[in-house]
Structures are given as structure tokens and as C-alpha cells.
Specification:
By secondary structure, the chain is mainly alpha-helical. The chain has helices spanning about 5-10, 40-45, 70-85, 85-95, 105-110, 115-130, 135-140, 150-160, 170, 180-190, 200-210, 220-235, 265-280, 300-320, 330-335, 340, 370-380, 405-410, 415-420, 455-460, 460-475, 485-495, 505-515, 535-540; strands at about 250-255, 285, 320-325, 370, 395-400, 480, 500-505. α6 crosses α10 (about 180-190), α13 packs across α23 and α17 (about 370-380) crosses α19. It is globular.
């Protein structure tokens, strides 16, 4: 990181001039720093996924592909086309109108034409034309077809791991082509020949082994939550005793393991615990399904299905009525867009009804799972919480619509409603950068790994630019979100592009504002920092 460019240097290096050569003749940059580290064989073996004979690096000339790798990819492609009608539609429909071209944050940040969604999809579509269409077989390159070669595989690996599956491009496509699903299919084909990245496969393997991405053992997960309860008692004077693996509880609460392990997600976990204690919620945590995130979304449909199933298997084992889900991104895209056809409907559970307000969450009638932002917004709307928003007065807040809850489930207003009730100072970013049109953090779909930090900073530039706008205009100093990956990816992005802006989860702000019965006078927030800036000034 010693030679990492300064922000102005990075910004000035973006070049939107098209290369003189045809795109097929420009090889991907696979020098160190421009690719994610490949999967470790032990993790692939644990998941029973194909693996190369030896460890390899994308910087190597020889990737140790199986001898019959072309046949494997061709048959895999044929299988996917038979399974998913959408894939064939996506392959046949594009007219290269260019409506999506400038919508990808990776293209905006890199200037690389192959990061245009239309061209990224063409990497796969050109092979489809060659192998599966009569026009491609007859006309060849004139018809936009090309043969599958080792160089094409390297191109796939490079650019389909420069896609965060955020789906912003699909919003602008007049035909509704979902480039994120094209990326998912391409990654599935790469997985068939042992090409995947460790930042995705290791969390998935950990989830199979211990129930969460981080490999936290059940007893360690319990101890971490209890440690947060000790901190809450120090701040509020109230002892909180959550239950674990309790059969017969009304609700199973599942949240990303990052909320139990990494700041600032840990403060969101404290906010959850305080909220549930305050309303007397009959809930339990599972130490075996201690992960809401689903890295299968970035690997294969089968992996996604298996990882999603664990939450429902645990809900069935514990005999709960329904599931309450924490602040996660890809968990919610899986639940809302794939659950019914993969694992559901979850007929053994009840349609969620808030035990506090009586609200029936009809939108969760099939999945039986409610987002914590919906749940808390309903509590506030029904005057079930006593809140002191002045406790967040040192935070001038804006909100990042996390891609999967926003575009994947339409969660736009509930988080904002909560923020406006727990904070006195809130400002939205420009309309073209939020809600349906939100920009990605630049590190989604398993790309939040340190070896591609330059690419992450480039991919996050459009989001950071929108934050800078409200930072400069309104003095915004805190970026709120409802996604664990965002809470991990946005702090270094803000430090790089917009210094002085922190990152918080929604329920950290709720925890700060929540006035709990019997609490001591609060002088610090959940980070154990003074509630008001003037208190710091008074000590000087």
C-alpha cells in the first residue's frame, strides 16, 4: 500500500478514451493488485467443488485447468441454458443500445470499456453465439461469435470479478436484462473448472463448518454477544440476558456474523439487543445458524440454496413462529428473489405478526421473514418506542441505500423513516444516486478483499462522490446503511475519498436514541464516546 495513489492521482488517471484495438484483442490486466486471490484447494474440497490440481495465481501463464476444461464449460453452459429461461433471454435480447454503458460504478471508476455492462455481458454472449446459435456457427466473428479459449477464460475471471452484482445497470436496460445474473452464471461456469476467489469460497466453507462466514464457533458467538451485553450495562446500567438456541421462542433473530465481530457492525448488534430488551420481545439467537449473509449468491444457485436453507432448518428445529432478519444485504436479495423457488414457501412457519403492535407483515407471507428496518419502523409508527434524537445530534446523517435491500426488495422509506425519528439532522444524497438508482459501495459480491484495494476505491468513487456532495453542502459526517458488507467496505472508502465521514448501521442510531426504562443517565453513545461534541470541548 506504500505506492497506493493519492485520491487526485487516482481520479486524474481515469481515461474514458476507447482503445485503438478491438475489445477482443485487449487482454485483461492480471498483474498483482488487479485480481482477487484464488480459492484455496482445502476450501473447495470442503464444499465438494471442483479444484485445480495445484495452487495457482491469475498472474501465472498456466492456470492448471483440467484437460477437458472446454467440454466442462460447454456442458455447464448447456445445462444452465436448459435450467434458466432467463439466461437464454438475456443472451438473445441485447441490441447493444448502450443505455447501461455509463451506469456501472466500475466503468465510471476505471474507464475500462469491458466494465460497461453491455460489454461485460458480451464476454459470455460471444461464446454463447459460437456454441449455441446457428448464426454464430455460420458467420463466426462477423456474427459476434468467438471460440472459448484460455484467454477468454482469463477475461471472464478478470471482469466477472469486477462486477459487484449490484443490478444498477438492469434498472436502465429497456429490455430488463439483468447483468448481475449473467455474472452469476459466468461465475458458476468458472467454478466448474476450479476458478473462484478465496474471499467468497472461504466464507462459504466456514458457513458450512460453523454456521457463519467468519468461522466463529458456537461458544465464541455466545461469548461475543454476552460481551456486548456487558458494554450495554456499562452504558445504560441495565442488564440484558439474550437467549440462545431456546426452543419455543416466538421469533428467531438472524443477522450477519459481521455484526458480532467487526466494528461498526458490533454497535448495530448492541442496538438490536437494546431494542429487543426494551419491547420485551420473545426471541432467541441461534449459535448454529449465526449468519444471515449468503455467499452462495456469488458462487452457484445450489450453494445459495444450501446456505439459505440453514436458517429455515434452525427455525423449524427451534419451533419458532417466524424469523426476524438483521441489517444484511445479500441475505435479503436471496430471501425476496430466490427463496420461494429454491427452498420455500416456508409453510411450517406463520405469517409474521408483530407481537408488540399487531401489524401483520403481508409482504412476508411466503418467506416468513421480516427485515429489522420494517419491524422498527412499525414500532415507531405505533408509538411503541421512547426516543431522544438529540443523543445523535453530533451525527449529521445521510443514508446509503444498500443495493440488495434497495433494488432487490424495495426497502427505501423504512430506513429513512427510522433515521428521521432517531436523528435531528438528516440529508439525502442527490436523487440520481439513491433508492432505485443507488450506487454500490464498490465491494459487493465478495470483492471486499484487501488485495484489490485500488479497484475497490475506483468502484466506490461514484458513491463517495455523492457523499462528498452532502458533506460539503450540509456538513454530513455520518453515512448510515443496512448491510454488513457496506459497514466493512464503506469506512476505508470514506477515509480515502471523503475524510471525516464515519459509517454506522441503522440500529446503532436507534440504540443511541432509545430511552429505556430504568436506565442511568447516558453520557456516552454505543461507541462509548461523549454524546455531545461540546462535552469534549469542555474537557480541553
Amino acid at each position: 500500500m506504500a505506492d497506493f495513489p493519492k485520491p487526485k492521482e487516482m481520479f486524474d488517471s481515469i481515461d474514458y478514451v476507447l482503445p485503438e484495438k478491438r475489445w477482443e484483442d485487449v487482454p485483461p490486466d492480471l498483474s498483482p493488485g488487479n485480481f482477487c486471490y484464488p480459492s484455496k484447494p482445502k476450501n473447495l474440497e470442503y464444499l465438494s467443488l471442483p479444484t485445480n490440481k495445484d495452487e495457482w495465481s491469475p498472474a501465472d501463464e498456466d492456470w492448471n485447468l483440467p484437460e477437458n476444461w472446454q467440454t466442462i464449460v460447454h456442458e455447464g453452459f448447456k445445462d444452465l441454458l436448459g435450467k434458466y429461461r432467463s439466461l437464454k433471454i438475456f443472451m438473445d435480447t441485447c441490441v447493444r443500445c448502450g443505455a447501461c454503458s455509463d451506469k456501472c460504478h466500475f466503468f465510471i471508476g476505471t474507464g475500462d470499456p469491458k466494465n460497461m455492462p453491455v460489454l461485460r455481458a458480451e464476454l459470455l454472449r460471444s461464446v454463447y453465439r459460437n456454441d449455441f446459435t446457428m448464426a454464430g456457427k455460420i458467420l463466426g466473428s462477423i456474427g459476434g461469435a468467438r471460440k472459448l479459449t484460455k484467454d477468454v477464460i482469463k477475461e471472464w475471471f478478470s471482469y466477472f470479478y469486477q462486477c459487484s452484482e449490484c443490478r444498477r445497470c438492469s434498472l436502465y436496460c429497456p429490455y430488463g436484462i439483468d447483468t448481475a445474473e449473467i455474472t452469476m452464471m459466468a461465475r458458476e461456469l468458472l467454478t466448474l473448472i476450479g476458478l473462484n476467489i478465496n474471499w467468497i469460497i472461504e466464507p462459504a466453507a466456514n458457513c458450512f463448518r460453523t454456521g457463519n462466514h467468519l468461522g466463529i464457533q458456537p461458544h465464541a458467538f455466545k461469548e461475543m454477544v454476552e460481551f456486548f451485553c456487558d458494554d450495554i450495562e456499562e452504558i445504560t446500567g441495565l442488564a440484558i440476558k439474550p437467549s440462545f438456541n431456546r426452543k419455543g421462542a416466538e421469533i428467531l433473530f438472524v443477522t450477519p456474523s459481521g455484526d458480532a465481530f467487526a466494528d461498526p457492525g458490533t454497535y448495530s448488534m448492541m442496538g438490536y439487543l437494546m431494542l429487543f430488551e426494551h419491547i420485551g420481545l420473545d426471541y432467541t439467537l441461534s449459535t448454529y445458524a449465526s449468519e444471515g449473509g449468503n455467499f452462495g449468491l456469488f458462487t452457484s444457485a445450489e450453494m445459495m440454496k444450501r446456505l439459505n436453507a440453514k436458517m429455515y432448518a434452525e427455525a423449524k428445529r427451534l419451533g419458532v413462529k417466524w424469523i426476524l432478519g438483521g441489517e444484511c444485504g445479500h441475505m435479503w436479495r436471496v430471501i425476496h428473489q430466490y427463496m420461494d423457488t429454491m427452498n420455500g414457501p416456508a409453510d411450517f412457519l406463520e405469517v409474521p405478526v408483530s407481537p408488540i403492535t399487531g401489524t401483520r407483515f403481508a409482504n412476508a407471507a411466503s418467506t416468513k421473514m421480516v427485515h429489522i428496518a420494517e419491524f422498527t419502523a412499525d414500532l415507531i409508527r405505533n408509538n411503541k418506542l421512547k426516543l431522544d434524537p438529540s443523543r445523535n445530534d453530533k451525527n449529521i446523517v445521510t443514508f446509503h441505500d444498500s443495493c440488495n435491500p434497495a433494488r432487490g426488495m424495495g426497502l427505501f422509506e423504512e430506513p429513512r423513516y427510522v433515521i428521521k425519528n432517531v436523528c435531528n439532522h438528516f440529508y439525502d444524497m442527490p436523487e440520481s444516486t439513491i433508492k432505485e438508482q443507488t450506487f454500490c459501495c464498490g465491494s459487493g459480491s465478495g470483492l471486499n478483499t484487501e488485495e484489490i484495494m485500488d479497484l475497490r476505491m475506483r468502484g466506490g468513487l461514484p458513491r463517495a462522490n455523492a457523499v462528498k456532495y452532502v458533506h460539503d453542502k450540509y456538513g454530513v459526517n455520518m453515512l448510515a446503511c443496512v448491510c454488513a458488507i457496506d459497514r466493512a467496505a464503506l469506512p476505508p472508502l470514506m477515509d480515502y475519498w471523503v475524510p471525516g465521514v464515519g459509517v454506522t448501521g441503522l440500529h446503532e442510531l436507534v440504540g443511541n436514541a432509545l430511552v429505556m426504562e430504568g436506565e442511568i443517565e447516558r453520557t456516552v453513545d454505543l461507541r462509548q464516546e461523549p454524546l455531545k461534541e461540546e462535552e469534549e470541548d469542555a474537557d480541553e
